[in-house]
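Why run this: before we spend reagent on co-expression, it is cheaper to look at a predicted model of the complex and decide which construct boundaries make sense. The entries below are exactly what would go into the expression plan.
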Amino acid sequence: MNNYNLIGKLEHVTKSYNDVVALSDISFSIERGQIIGFLGPNGSGKSTSIQLLLGLIKPQAGSVSIFGVNPFYNSKMNNLVGYIPEESQFPKWMTAFDYLFQLARFNMDDEPARERTTQVLKEVELLDVADKQVRKFSKGMRQRVKIAQALLHKPALIIGDEPFNGLDPVVRQHMFDLFRKYRKEYNCTIFLSSHILFEIEKLADKIILVYKGRTIAQGTPSRIREMIQDQPHTIEIVTKEPKKLARILIDSYDFDVVSSIQFNENTRDEGIILNIKTTRPKIFYDRFTNLVVDNKLPIVQMRPTDEGLESLFNTLTVG
Amino acid sequence: MTNEMINSPEYIANTLNSSDDLATRLRRYKVSSLIAIKTLIYGRKWLIYLLLSLTFLIVPILSKDPLGPNPNAKAEFMIWFTQNFIPFLLPFGAFILSLPLTSDEISDNITELYLVRPISRENFYLSRVSMAILSTWIINDIIALIYYIAYFILDPTRGISDALQNYYLYTWSVYIMLLATIMYSTLFIFIGMLGSRGMVLGILVAIFDTAIAPNLFLVDSAAMPRTHLLHLTSEYFGSLYNYTTAPKDMTLLSNHLYAVIFMLVSLVLGLLYFRSKEFTE
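The model came back. Tokens follow.
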């Protein structure tokens, strides 16, 4: 008899690609009903761990199980899993509705699929643009479509690979509320990777720290925050009104919270990049969402760099 | 079902222990096939193939003597079918239409989006193979129909009514094209499973099949699909086309057996490879 309170497990898993070791004897478990933050810098093995959980790749050593079965040889477990991929993966021809509807039909009949598609589009606030091609969406909108497709069948386990990338603070908060709602109403267990602690600490019950293919610490967000809070932190914000944002930040924060602001040209998207250095990230993030809403600031993108985590991981692994 | 029951341990156990009925498996196959067909249609590679194929018509249309030394439309159509279409256009068409269906989806990380849905890998693969065969066959039928009608229109002694009277010529061609498409599309879908590397290998296989092997060491060899297809053509259209250099022991039955075995080998190898294939970023 399976213990369905233990949703997923990686035990002493090793995975390498040619000479590159992606995971080295990694072990962790996912308990039912939890929201787990899977935290590590880029290249630490987060995506490889997720691909193992989804049955897209096989381990070279160790074992992987989801709901007590080997995910690589069991497509039935996909009835219970929703996956938010990191990369934008959309067939070029699909509208948002078509994309979600076709994917929903793998899980349910046509009529329930149609209903769920409309419902989920409403939940991620994309119903108005349901008939537009996904490839014409902004990065944030595409991210919301990816989150929507993972929620269609009310899965027992939602696995997200950097699901909050490209979301502005207001939409991010909305997605947090949506994940909480799915946990409460549909008993969903949620496993989300990120390289930004402050992105998921408000949402997660437990955080697993992964670095260089190994788990190096696990604990509550407050415990992890205690470990990281002294680390300097740089946040990259893309905005169309950089001067206004800089002025508001200078007026609203003390020097020990925002210690420097740097303007950089943005070659990829519209807007200017502001690199903001903070030594007290908690205070910065606590106040920032309200500042954006109150001052109607047009934030195109916001993402902390790896600096804070990198220094923490160096401390944990070296010291 | 109430919200409290969703994702309860009992719900999870029931989901994992229940077996999918035929209707559910068919629904998933249907969805996967529909996605494949739409991807093919919107990919527009069929349009490139269609236009390239029709460029061969420009010469007879612009020529003062459209049918050249050939006595009539039937003979001209047969020459086009056996010298241009079967040996070159058809394998090229199967390559350009079938291979990207799998290789593009793998390169763009789209395949894994479907594989994390509750469809078995076998079901997904079969939907790709069947839709590649169907679409390639339909496009080939359209190309052959255009040539068939065009040659009858260009023949001053004949016309559309003669084309209708000789419909058997086209219908048997459609059958031969079906066998050819089954072989080539199954092969190229398998090669496309290699992703971006599959495209390079596919080009090499297409060049080997259309240009290198038949002109060098495998000319009129029973190992080549074109030998069987041309022999089939000569069996069905004996008065119009005679494949004199075909291997002596070749029969209609051996041609069909070859087509079925060729398709099964490609299909089984593709399925085995796809079942164990890992999908990384």
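Chain B has one domain: 22-276. Chain B touches chain A at residues 3-4, 6-9, 11-13, 15-16, 20, 27-28, 31-32, 34-35, 38-39, 41-42, 108-110, 112-121, 278-281 (CB under 8 Å). Bring this page to Monday's planning discussion.
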